[in-house]
Design brief:
Length: 322
């Protein structure tokens, strides 16, 4: 009795699901959806349509559609992350993509492996849902990290605009045109809403709650207090920018200090799996005698549980809130 290469096939199919979803996303929405695009998405949409109200309505719909669909079966597990990632796919489209990728994964498992039908169905369903979940999680993490990094620069740009005499609404508009995505499109929607009569403080508060971003909450509170009590908004925002930048530097320092422990945990959890694959390639019959014993399956399950616990514990130890 020898081990098979099926786990490697499972991994390749899962990676294929991620690549397929990303390729489909870029094909449908084009390069403007990428966060490294030189022109932010709102300006590109305005250049194509020329209708400011239509662009604002479309972007607002994309920004709010995921939280509104939290009651959709199977979708509630990723609605919050999809909201933070600002996925342009609708919730129904994402569910259909889960189903389609699950079917493709099932076909791949049927062709490349000899596992039983119930196992193939369960694994393909997990790959369809899990692949889309991992893809959205990566998008959300990258987008939120970029926004946190951009926010101090954007606030300082507002401060300079206010000091030369621009009103706050104009300062928001300057950020929407001069800063790159993802922050530019978010502030562009706020600028458009202010043009059509919405209170800027309320719009900033809604954006902070939608993105669940603490620094944006600070900005919304600062603007709301200034609107009610008055004061020099430029000085308030200048101080806020310094606080956010210092907090960001502290976060980077903590991240650098905990990087060794984090990668050590990943290495200790991943090394047994890589060692198992190496043994399988070099000497496929190495575990034949051990697999005949009744303790092999329970021992393998226990080892797998300890590997997962190692990742969870190490992540909890290095997840320091700043």
């Amino acid at each position: 009795m020898s081990l098979s290469a099926e786990p490697i096939i499972y991994g390749l199919i899962f990676i294929g699901v991620l690549v397929l979803v990303e390729g489909l996303y870029l094909t449908v929405f084009g390069r403007s959806i990428r966060l490294d695009s030189r022109v932010n998405r709102r300006l590109e949409m305005l250049d194509k349509t020329g209708n400011r109200e239509e662009v604002m309505d479309k972007l607002r719909k994309e920004m709010e559609q995921h939280l509104k669909a939290r009651r959709v079966p199977l979708y509630a597990i990723l609605s919050q992350k999809a909201q933070k990632a600002a996925i342009a796919f609708t919730p129904k489209q994402i569910v259909l993509i889960m189903i389609a990728t699950g079917i493709l994964a099932f076909l791949g498992l049927s062709i490349g492996t000899e596992t039983q039908l119930p196992v193939r169905i369960l694994v393909s369903a997990a790959m369809g849902v899990g692949g889309v979940y991992v893809w959205i999680s990566m998008k959300a993490s990258k987008r939120m990290a970029l926004m946190e990094e951009q926010l101090p620069d954007a606030i300082e740009l507002m401060v300079r605009s206010l000091r030369v005499g621009h009103p706050f609404s104009s300062a928001i508009g300057i950020v929407a045109t001069e800063v790159a995505d993802p922050l530019a499109t978010e502030f562009g929607v706020i600028s458009d809403e202010a043009t059509y009569g919405r209170d800027i403080g309320e719009a900033l508060k809604d954006m902070a709650e939608r993105l669940d971003m603490q620094d944006l909450r600070f900005l919304a509170v600062a603007v709301a207090i200034q609107q009610q009590a008055g004061g020099n908004l430029a000085e308030i925002l200048d101080g806020l920018a310094k606080v956010i930048r210092a907090r960001f530097r502290l976060f980077r320092r903590v991240k650098a200090i905990t990087a060794e422990a984090k990668w050590s945990g990943n290495f200790l959890s991943g090394f047994p799996l890589f060692a198992l694959m190496g043994i399988q390639l070099l000497k496929p019959d190495y575990y034949d005698e051990a697999m005949e014993t009744p303790y092999f399956i329970p021992a393998a399950i226990i080892v797998g549980v300890f590997l997962v616990l190692n990742l969870v514990v190490m992540r909890a130890l290095v997840n320091i809130k700043v």
